[in-house]
Amino acid sequence: MPVPTAVGERLARAVAGEPSQKTLTRSALVAQIAARGAGLTEDDVRFTVSLLLTAITEHVARGGRVEIRGFGSFVRRLRRARISRNPGTGAQVIVDAKFVPHFKMSGEFRRGLNASLAADARSVGAAPTSPPHQGRQENANALTRVSA
């Protein structure tokens, strides 16, 4: 079945690593994986992605931790009950306690994100900038170098 031109162009950009849009949807992810030529059909990939996401969701919902080396970990956290305000009326609203998902990216993931920042800075000719959230010791060292 021929792929419509606009869809084919978007898919080609996604496979080449160029984001055509800011959000990668499940269907775009499935198309991107299937297009890499791993011998899997889109239906196979769709089924596998669905199984993976269901397994992660169910394990975290039961209170487990899912850790994918090189990517990150998923856990559930308890958000306590609180009093909030309805933004439309300003009335107080009681929000019940609930579990919320929490994702912590791995160091490898973080380095990959920041490597693209450093590469962008080098291509412009500027010195690479530090990420905004450094450890306390690194911040103290930076202040000492500046004030000395």
Number of strands: 5
Uncertain residue ranges: none
Q: Major β-sheet, in short?
A: 3 strands, antiparallel
**How much helical structure, as a percent, in the residues?**
40-55%
Oligomer: single chain
Task: Describe the structure in your own words.
With 148 residues, this protein is α+β, with helices and mostly antiparallel strands. Among the domains are: 61 residues, no CATH class; 42 residues, IHF-like DNA-binding proteins (HU Protein, Chain A, Irregular), CATH 4.10.520. Helices cover 48% and strands 18% of the residues. The protein is built from five helices and five strands; from the N terminus they run H-H-H-E-E-E-E-E-H-H. It has a three-stranded antiparallel sheet with strand order 1-2-5. The protein has a two-stranded antiparallel ribbon with strand order 3-4. Helix 2 crosses helix 3. The longest helix has 20 residues. The radius of gyration is 22 Å and the shape is extended. It starts with a helix and ends with a helix. The mean pLDDT is 80.
Provide the descriptors you would attach to this structure in a database record:
two-stranded antiparallel sheet, HU Protein, Chain A, 48% helix, 5 helices, extended, three-stranded antiparallel beta sheet, 148 residues, 5 strands, alpha+beta
Brief sketch in words of this structure:
With about 150 residues, the protein is α+β, with helices and mostly antiparallel strands.
SSE inventory with pairings:
Blueprint: H1 5-15, H2 26-35, H3 42-61, E1 66-68, E2 72-79, E3 82-85, E4 92-95, E5 98-105, H4 107-124, H5 136-147
Antiparallel strand pairs: 1-2, 2-5, 3-4
